[in-house]
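User: Reviewer 2 asked us to show a designed sequence for the structure in our supplementary figure. I'm pasting the structure tokens here. Could you produce the per-position amino acids so we can include them in the response letter?
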């Protein structure tokens, strides 16, 4: 029997329950840092040291975090479905939980890349990229992150996954960051669609969307039990 295609789109809410600070919520990182000073190409050109320090601190936090019940429940769904996870998160908690197919829309905190050749990507040993660390072409390494104002190179692949999904689940995202937020509007008319978020708004344009207003751990476990 052919397995159904299940596509999951995750945001900061799923990582928050592992202790990783979100960006947009009250008390989040954007209240502590000016987005334009640490997360744009212009910020990098202006003050590489500050940008490196910001992401080194984020990376240290990620390394100390562990996958939670929501991450683990998504792994269990692979027993019954072909699961592809699309995530806005830059951490590796999905992979550490055991998910096999994870697509990072906004990059990966544990990798560095060349500033002159985006195809040169390297794993980071430890939690730091240091000033003076260079790629094989001689340029300073930068975080392998999609900054505000940069293209999202994995969007095309993400859309392909979404358009073939039999079941599409959104977890822990405000659906305010575009183009990623547009994914939910590209599902097939026959697809089952779910949103898990305690602060979910109203989606009048998506009448078939089933909303579970719970935090990620509780909501994903509820839905996983239902689907299994």
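Assistant: Here is a per-position design you can include in the supplement:
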């Amino acid at each position: 029997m052919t397995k159904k295609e299940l596509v999951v789109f995750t945001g900061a809410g799923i990582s928050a329950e592992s202790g990783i600070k979100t960006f947009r919520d009250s008390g989040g990182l954007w209240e502590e840092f000016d987005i334009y000073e640490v997360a744009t190409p212009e910020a990098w050109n202006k003050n590489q040291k500050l940008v490196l320090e910001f992401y080194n601190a984020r990376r240290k936090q990620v390394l100390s975090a562990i996958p939670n019940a929501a991450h683990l429940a998504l792994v269990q769904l692979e027993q019954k479905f072909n699961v592809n996870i699309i995530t806005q998160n830059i951490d590796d908690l999905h992979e550490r939980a055991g998910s096999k197919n994870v697509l990072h829309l906004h990059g990966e905190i544990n990798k560095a890349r060349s500033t002159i050749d985006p195809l040169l990507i390297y794993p980071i040993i430890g939690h730091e990229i240091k000033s003076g660390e260079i790629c094989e072409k001689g340029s300073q390494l930068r975080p392998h992150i999609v900054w505000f104002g940069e293209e999202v190179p994995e969007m095309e692949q993400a859309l392909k996954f979404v358009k073939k999904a039999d079941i599409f689940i959104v977890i822990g995202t405000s659906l305010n960051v575009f183009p990623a937020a547009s994914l939910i509007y590209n599902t097939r008319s026959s697809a089952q669609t779910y949103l898990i978020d305690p602060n979910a708004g109203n989606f009048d344009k998506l009448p078939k969307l089933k909303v579970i207003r719970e935090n990620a751990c509780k909501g994903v476990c509820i839905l996983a039990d239902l689907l299994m």
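For the response letter, you might also mention the following. The beta strands are 5-10, 82-87, 102-104, 107-114, 121-123, 141-145, 167-171, 192-196, 210-212. The chain has nine helices and nine strands.
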